[in-house]
Amino acid sequence: MKVLVTGGAGYIGSVTASALERAGHTPIVLDSLERGPRAFVRDRVFYEGDLADRALLRRVVEDHPDLTTAIHMGAYVSVPESMEQPALYYDNNVAKSLVLFDELSRSGVDRVVFSSSASVYATGPEPVVTETSPTGPQSPYARTKLMMEEVLADLTAATTLRGVVLRYFNPVGANPDLSSGVHAAEPSHVLGQLVMAANGTRPRFRLTGTDFETRDGTGLRDYIPVGDLAVAHVHAVERFDEVLDDGATTRVLNLGTGTGTTVRELVAAVEEVTGLTVPVEEAPRRPGDSAGACADPSLAHQLLGWRCETTLTEAIASALEWDRRRPDVLGYR
After folding, report:
1. Which domain holds residue 315?
2. E-assigned strands of the chain?
């Protein structure tokens, strides 16, 4: 099966393209390369351009008339950046995604797997969330994700388009074959910052927020190994019609491990894997930060036959090994 992967040169997109290939499918990568490196495309079928370029989208479909499914991962993903530049996020994540969905529907590519986020959930008293837990996004980034879930629901109700929405929790680690991983020289996410502090690239890890209502005051997250996350996309593509066989036009699924880890616990896990002490500097929470939560992934297990198989320790080890290999793959530290 051919599968269009928007954002396929990015961190999660490149790992998902590898997972599709291992399962016998052909990823068709569409990426502007604004934030993803060309090296991650490798030798795959590739179209460089904007995901809202209707002429380019039509060309992709014309070149691949057997294309029926798209995985939409082309989005900006930084909460702090979205707080500083909300217009940028609404334009890229909402306006351009709307064009993409509309053009896919017009072109007959009527199956969409949409990358959403657990950040759409409201902060509540219970740390475990299901797909029916209340939503309450706390940043422009999170609001763009919830908006596009609602847009997709409206489009699927009015057209032949159908959607499976995957709400990611916190991806960590590298591609299982170590061909790709976090590519930013200074990653903004917590494990990337910890890896930099552990290897001496940064003098210390800045722990933002120590007064949340969690067991140790630091944010609680469900850290999902990115290789397992990618496999979930493969299952969503392969079982797409089964997931919607009750007549629904969209379905939301949580993707996580079901286990919450606080930031302090993550620091301890990195120290365990590396055998080093990570210097930590405590700081106030940032705008848009939340206490966090972990997933109830039982619906994904039921409908996709999927669950995480990689441990957090294994994911951390892969992130550290990728950090060592990254200069050879990308040509920069």
Report:
1. 190-220+258-305+307-330
2. 2-6, 26-31, 45-48, 69-72, 111-117, 128-129, 162-168, 170-172, 205-208, 220-221, 223-225, 250-255, 261-262, 280-283, 294-295
The domain that holds 200 is classified in CATH as 3.90.25.10
Asked if 119 and 137 count as a contact pair (C-beta separation under 8 A), the reply is yes
Mean pLDDT of 229-235: 98
Among the ranges given (130-139, 168-177, 190-199, 271-280), the one the predictor scored with the smallest mean pLDDT: 190-199
Is 141 catalytic? The answer is: yes
| Nearest-angstrom CA–CA distance, 101 and 86 | 21
Task: List CB contacts of 234: < 8 A, sequence separation 6 or more.
Answer: 16, 19, 20, 23, 25
d(CA 56, CA 87): 24
- 8-state DSSP, 121: B
Instruction: Determine the 3-state secondary structure of 214 from DSSP.
Output: coil
Same domain? For 276 and 154 the reply is: no
Q: Which of 11, 76, 89, 141 is catalytic?
A: 141
Which CATH number covers residue 126?
3.40.50.720
| pLDDT for position 333 | 60
Q: Say if pTM beats, i.e. exceeds, 0.90.
A: yes
Which whole-number Å values give the CA distances from 143 to 11, 44, 121, 128, 285, in the listed order? 22, 32, 10, 20, 19
| pLDDT tens digit sequence for 2-28 | 999 999 999 999 999 999 999 999 999
| Number of domains within the chain | 2
